[in-house]
Design a protein that fits this description.
single chain; about 250 residues; alpha/beta; Rossmann fold; 5-stranded antiparallel beta sheet; 15 strands; rod-shaped
Length: about 250
C-alpha cells in the first residue's frame, strides 16, 4: 500500500497535535513533520518533498495561499481552517479538499479517499505513457537516457546526428559526445522513426535533419554531408531506398 509523506502546517500547536493524533488512524498517512508558519513550512517542504499538506489558511506572516505561490512544485493540499469563506479560492488553486475545524472524521475519510483515487489515476497514467512509448517509434522529439561507464546523458534525439556501429556496440554522436551502448545497430533501426532517421549503410544511421548536402558517389551510391562537415557514404541498396523515399 502506498504511504503519503505528510506535513501538518498550522500556527496553533493544539490544532497540530489534534491533527497528528487523528491521522495516526490512517495507515496510508505518514506525518513526517510540522510547521507553525509559512517560513518554517517553506524550508520543510523543500527539504522533505512531501506528498501531502494539511494546511491552515490563516497564519501570521503568510497565509496558506501565499505559501503555495512561493512553491515551484505544489504537493497535494487539504486545507484545514475554521472558516468556510475560502472554500472557492481553495479549489481555484486545485486543492484536494477543504475541511472545517473541528475535523469531522467522515469528511477526513472522504478527503483521503480523494487522495488515494488521484494517486491511483496518476499511476495508471504513468503506466499508459510507458506502454505508449514502448510500443511506438521514437521521434526526434523524444528524449533518451544513455549510460556509458560512469557518465550519464539525457539527450533529445533531435541532437543525435548519427549512430555508428562499433563492433558489438553502437556509438551515439551528439555534440562532442560519443557514448557507447551495447546493442546492435539493427535494434536502433527498428526503434527509430524512419521519417527522422535513415539507415545509410551497415555502419551508420543518420538524422535526416542534420543532412546539409547530397552528392553522387562511386558505384551508383550517394554521399551525405552533415552540418558538422562529416560525410557518410550511402550503400547502393540504401541509395535506391533513399531516392524512393525522398524524390518528387
Amino acid at each position: 500500500m502506498k504511504t503519503f509523506k505528510t506535513l501538518v502546517i498550522d500556527d496553533e500547536r493544539l490544532a497540530r497535535e489534534e491533527m497528528k493524533s487523528i491521522l495516526k488512524e490512517f495507515s496510508e498517512i505518514e506525518v513526517i513533520g510540522e510547521a507553525q508558519n509559512g517560513d518554517e513550512a517553506l524550508e520543510l517542504i523543500k527539504s522533505t518533498e512531501p506528498d501531502l499538506l494539511f494546511l491552515d489558511v490563516n497564519m501570521p506572516g503568510m497565509t496558506g495561499f501565499e505559501l503555495l505561490k512561493k512553491l515551484d512544485t505544489i504537493p497535494n493540499v487539504i486545507f484545514v481552517t475554521a472558516y468556510d469563506e475560502y472554500a472557492i479560492k481553495a479549489f481555484e488553486v486545485n486543492a484536494l479538499d477543504y475541511l472545517l475545524k473541528p475535523i469531522d472524521i467522515d469528511r477526513l475519510n472522504e478527503a483521503i479517499g480523494k487522495l488515494k483515487q488521484k494517486s491511483e489515476s496518476e499511476f495508471e497514467s504513468d503506466i499508459d505513457q510507458k506502454t505508449d512509448r514502448n510500443s511506438r517509434l521514437l521521434t526526434k522529439d523524444d528524449r533518451v537516457f544513455i549510460k556509458d561507464g560512469e557518465k550519464c546523458y539525457f539527450v533529445q534525439l533531435s541532437e543525435v546526428r548519427m549512430l555508428e556501429s562499433d563492433g558489438n556496440y553502437v556509438k551515439v554522436h551528439f555534440g562532442k559526445n560519443r557514448p557507447l551502448i551495447l546493442r546492435s545497430l539493427n535494434s536502433f533501426e527498428e526503434k527509430l522513426d524512419p521519417e527522422c532517421f535513415f539507415r545509410a549503410n551497415r555502419k551508420f544511421i543518420v538524422n535526416l535533419d542534420w543532412i546539409s548536402g547530397v552528392e553522387n558517389w562511386f558505384n551508383g551510391g550517394l554521399q551525405l554531408e552533415l552540418n558538422t562537415g562529416e560525410k557518410i557514404e550511402v550503400s547502393r541498396r540504401q541509395t535506391i531506398r533513399f531516392k524512393e523515399l525522398f524524390s518528387f
